[in-house]
From TrEMBL:
InterPro entries (alphabetical): Class_I_gatase-like (IPR029062), DJ-1/PfpI (IPR002818), Homeodomain-like_sf (IPR009057), HTH_AraC (IPR018060), INH-QAR (IPR052158)
Taxonomic lineage: Bacteria, Pseudomonadati, Pseudomonadota, Alphaproteobacteria, Sphingomonadales
Listed Gene3D superfamilies: 3.40.50.880, Homeodomain-like (1.10.10.60)
PANTHER family from the UniProt entry: ARAC-FAMILY TRANSCRIPTIONAL REGULATOR, HTH-TYPE TRANSCRIPTIONAL REGULATOR RV1931C
Domain of life of the source: Bacteria
Keywords: Transcription, Transcription regulation
Protein's name in the database: GlxA family transcriptional regulator
One Pfam short name: DJ-1_PfpI
Molecular function in Gene Ontology: DNA-binding transcription factor activity; sequence-specific DNA binding
Chain ranges of the HTH araC/xylS-type domain: 223-321
Classification via CDD domains: GATase1_AraC_2
């Protein structure tokens, strides 16, 4: 297999190396993306660039190693905070990284964490009011430091669009496969899982991949609206609200939003709301009408129609196929 090393990468994944982080996860993620690139090459797809970032003596976080150094500086599509072997980094230890992660997120990077790496992401303040997971062993410490985060330690991976958190110390495999699915597609993800002898059963839902919004387009005003929509769950919003958040006239906003994201604002909002509905169908037993309401749809019939259009299954069929409680 060819790794596609001579091809221009389609996206970059950055791995943050900080004191005490688990080197096994760092190397494991590196190997996982290398394997994914090998399989992507078979489909003629561009590879994923992998970079490593570390804080210097002056506190500045810089790129120290890179699979494609000839490609120059770029905003990573995803930045990963790996797990830590002992206790989580304390407030003083997270401070040098929190501002940097916040700035990268504002520039369009998706932030991801494994296990205790969630403490670095939470230190940015971006998880306030949003769902996240970490290792069950750190639950009490996490809740004490970040009481406004909707922590769910029963979930192995929580993909909330622009932030992805993974629980256990070896959940870097699950996280890595989720990122491969986003950047290289479900076929490459499944090939990578099989090559690594990781049972892909239970990951078949990736063929109905979570909505992966375009965030590295460079339009700061539109990115601000995307982050605003993600935090609100795209519920009870309209184009006028979005344009106001972007400080634009509506016609200008509509043109720039579509140019940046590839979707009309209401289509984009529908994808976000359906993503929330998928999560509720997978992990709760709420009636479908209640799922519709919780996802921002007052008309359950309209919800069913939109859900089928985006996912390719009815809400009921989706729950039968992918619901955790159903499978149990």
């Amino acid at each position: 297999m060819g790794s596609g090393r001579d091809q221009t990468p389609r996206a970059e994944v950055g791995i943050l190396i900080y004191p005490g982080c688990q080197q096994g996860a760092v190397f494991g993620l590196s190997d996982l993306f290398w394997i994914a690139n090998e399989h992507a090459a078979r489909y003629g797809a561009e590879p994923v660039r992998v970079s490593f970032w570390e804080a210097q003596g002056d506190g500045q976080v810089v790129r120290t190693r890179d699979s494609h150094p000839e490609c120059g500086d770029a905003v990573p599509a995803v930045l990963i905070a790996p797990p830590r072997l002992d206790h989580p980094a304390d407030a003083e230890q997270t401070a040098p990284y929190a501002r940097w992660l916040l700035d990268r997120h504002a520039a369009g990077s998706v932030l991801a964490s494994v296990c205790a790496g969630a403490f670095l992401v939470a230190a940015t303040g971006l998880l306030a009011g949003r769902p996240a997971t970490t290792h069950w062993y750190f639950e009490e410490a996490f809740r004490a430091r970040f009481p406004d985060v909707k922590l769910d330690i029963n979930r192995l991976v929580i993909d909330d669009g622009d932030i992805i958190t993974a629980g256990g110390i070896t959940a870097w495999m699950e996280l890595g496969l989720r990122i491969v699915d986003r950047l290289l597609g479900p076929s490459v993800m499944m090939e990578t899982a099989r090559f690594m002898l990781v049972d892909p059963a239970g990951r078949e839902q990736q063929h109905y991949s979570s909505f992966s919004p375009r965030l590295t387009h460079g339009d700061e005003a539109i990115l601000r609206v995307q982050h605003w929509l993600q935090a609100k769950g795209a519920v009870h919003v309209n184009v006028r609200d979005m344009a106001a958040e972007a400080h634009m006239e509506e016609r200008t906003f509509l043109r720039r939003f579509r140019a940046a994201t590839g979707l009309k604002p209401l289509e984009y909002s529908q994808h976000l709301r359906v993503g929330k509905a998928r999560e509720l169908l997978e992990f709760t037993v709420r009636p479908i009408d209640q799922v519709a309401w919780s996802s921002g749809y007052e008309d359950a019939a309209a919800f069913r129609k939109i859900f089928h259009k985006i996912v390719g299954l009815t809400p009921g069929d989706y729950r039968k196929r992918f619901g955790v409680r159903t499978a149990a």
